[in-house]
Write a structure and sequence with these properties.
The chain is mainly alpha-helical and about 180 residues long. It has one domain: Ferritin, CATH 1.20.1260. Helix content is about 65%, strand content about 0%. The chain binds fe (ii) ion. Belongs to the Dps family. GO terms for molecular function: ferric iron binding; oxidoreductase activity, acting on metal ions. This is DNA starvation/stationary phase protection protein Dps. InterPro entries: DPS_DNA-bd (IPR002177), DPS_DNA-bd_CS (IPR023188), Ferritin-like (IPR012347), Ferritin-like_SF (IPR009078), Ferritin_DPS_dom (IPR008331). It holds the Pfam family Ferritin.
Length: about 180
């Protein structure tokens, strides 16, 4: 059956497998939905970061090109941590291109953009969105009783906040 699409759909299929993990059932349900949505957003952010790394030209080219290399390598680790936490809770992580395209909460990344400052602005918007989504997830999973997932999201949100700062620092004098 086709799933409803749009911002209300996290892309989590609901598929579960049995585990001895003692996190409560309600907490597991909340965390699986939250983790799948964040996994999708984070993979999309990874792809956007690579798009910018490859194509940006102009002001501070080499600094930005190399900085973004570090960003997407970190995001590679972060997406892995989100997916593996989801599986530990008895879920099935969905990292397919098809699910990503239909459920990401980030806006489409402009495929023809070249200007380096333009890329920094586009990325800043998306890093801020993911930072907020992670913070929302910290509270949702903690309130549901899954302190471990909440802790993971806390760690990841600090990292995304740091990257947002490093992006926004390049916008000084460029209309922020
Ligand atoms: Fe590269």
């Amino acid at each position: 059956m086709a799933k409803a699409q749009g911002k209300g759909d996290t892309g989590y299929s609901g598929t579960r497998w049995s585990t001895r993990n003692s996190v409560g059932e309600n907490a597991k349900n909340v965390s699986l939905t939250t983790l799948q949505a964040l996994l999708t957003d984070a993979i999309d952010l990874y792809n956007a970061t690579r798009q910018a790394h490859w194509n940006l030209k102009g002001t501070n080219f080499i600094g930005l090109h190399e900085m973004l290399d570090g960003f997407y390598n970190d995001l590679n680790e972060s997406t892995d941590a989100l997916a593996e936490r989801l599986v530990q809770l008895g879920g099935v992580a969905n990292g397919t291109t098809q699910n990503l395209a239909s459920t990401t909460r980030l806006p489409p990344y402009p495929a023809d953009l070249l200007d380096s400052i333009g890329h920094v602005k586009e990325l800043s918007e998306r890093y801020a969105m993911v930072g907020k989504a992670l913070r929302d997830g910290i509270d949702e999973t903690d309130d549901a009783g899954d302190a471990d997932t909440s802790d993971l999201l806390t760690e990841l949100s600090r990292d995304i906040d740091k990257k947002l700062w490093m992006l926004e620092a390049h916008l000084q004098g460029h209309g922020n």
